[in-house]
Write a structure and sequence with these properties.
Blueprint: E1 3-8, H1 16-32, E2 34-39, H2 51-68, E3 76-79, H3 84-94, H4 99-104, H5 106-114, H6 121-124, H7 126-135, E4 141-143, H8 149-165, E5 175-177, H9 209-217, H10 234-246, H11 249-260, H12 267-293, H13 296-325
Parallel strand pairs: 1-2, 2-3, 4-5
Bound molecules: tryptophan.
């Protein structure tokens, strides 16, 4: 059985793009692999989140993960800061992380440019913490987006370096897992290629039906096709892309035919249908999010059990690493 691991920083809510992108694949992966899904609250500290909001942010993402169907009976779900072994291994790995290479990391350079007043050591060593997350459970696969691939490369470097330095074959080299064809990309509602938090073009799983209807109504359109069988502009193609994911093939064919026939004045109907079918998907999830979010006892139980399982694996690794590095107790 392969070990799959993924972390998410607790910032914001999951949107439709997250759901049909990573989440659908996570749901499949948890059936066939040993999966670790965790909330990277230590990673989120680089931007100094408000202490009054940190816990709520963790609660939100955890509830959304559970509501989407990540199953604590199948996968190991935990909060990073519940596993102190990660902090110790991070300290140890930091001794093999060099300033020059950390400074050259693309994500570091970008963040440092964006926030020149907050170039803290945690930001610099962000890739070391991420490598620790991965190596501490000997992950085989780490599903990541393009922006995180360099961090995976760095993780492999550290694993290699550690093995070489201590003459062991201890750390496994993890592979960045790209969903490839299986990855459904949900476009934005503004004609842009991708639904994304920072783009402000999202439908969130937690959005009320009224909100979804409003957002879809506002999606970019035009006056209709300018003739028979003309190509669709991107922003219209985007609406069809989402429709294909949430509606039936008959519904898609119906609107496709209207476009190809060069008909006008049906965007209102398309948007109504699209909103309705999106709501069909998000409604049960939203209801579960709200239930889970208010269920302290359940969240307590899930996080305790998750931390216990994660710590079992993490403490085994840490014990072995300590031995390899020469620590002995008196
Ligand atoms: N760096 C990731 C992000 O910004 C989050 C993350 C932290 C992560 N640790 C990880 C992802 C380990 C995969 C594996 O999105």
């Amino acid at each position: 059985m392969k070990v799959v691991l993924s972390g998410i920083r607790p910032t914001g809510n999951l949107h439709l793009g997250n759901y049909y992108g990573a989440m659908i694949n996570f749901l499949k992966m948890q059936e066939e692999n040993k999966c670790y899904f965790f909330i990277a609250d230590w990673h989120s500290l680089t931007t100094h989140p408000d202490p009054n909001k940190l816990h709520a942010n963790v609660r939100t993402i955890l509830s959304e993960y559970l509501a989407c169907g990540l199953d604590p009976e199948k996968a190991i779900l935990y909060v990073q800061s519940d596993v102190p072994e990660i902090a110790e291994l991070y300290l140890l790995l930091n001794m093999h992380a060099y300033l020059g290479e950390l400074e050259k990391t693309v994500s570091f350079k970008e963040k440092a440019r964006q926030n020149p007043d907050n170039v803290n050591a945690g930001l610099l060593t962000y890739p070391v913490l991420m490598a620790t997350d991965i190596l501490i459970h000997h992950a085989d696969y780490v599903p990541v987006g393009k922006d995180q691939e360099q961090h995976l490369e760095i993780t492999r470097n550290y694993a290699n370096r550690f093995n070489y330095k201590y003459g062991v074959d201890y750390f496994k080299l993890p592979t960045a897992y790209n969903f490839g064809k299986e990855l459904i990309k949900i476009p934005g509602l503004d004609g842009s290629g991708k639904m994304g938090k920072s783009e402000g073009n999202c439908i969130y799983l937690i959005d009320e039906p009224k909100v979804i209807e409003k957002k879809i109504k506002k999606a970019l359109t035009d006056n209709g096709p300018e003739g028979v069988n003309t190509p669709k502009p991107d922003y219209i193609e985007n609406l069809f892309t989402i429709l294909k994911v949430v509606s039936t093939p008959e519904v898609v064919a119906y609107y496709d035919n209207l476009w190809n026939a060069g008909e006008t004045k049906w965007y209102g109907s398309l948007k109504k249908q699209l909103a309705e079918d999106i709501i069909k998907v998000t409604n049960p999830i939203r209801e579960r999010i709200n239930d889970i979010q208010n269920d302290d006892a359940y969240l307590h139980k899930i996080t305790r059990e998750g931390a216990e399982k994660a710590r079992e694996s993490a403490s085994k690794t840490l014990k072995e690493v300590r031995e390899i590095m020469g620590f002995k107790s008196f």
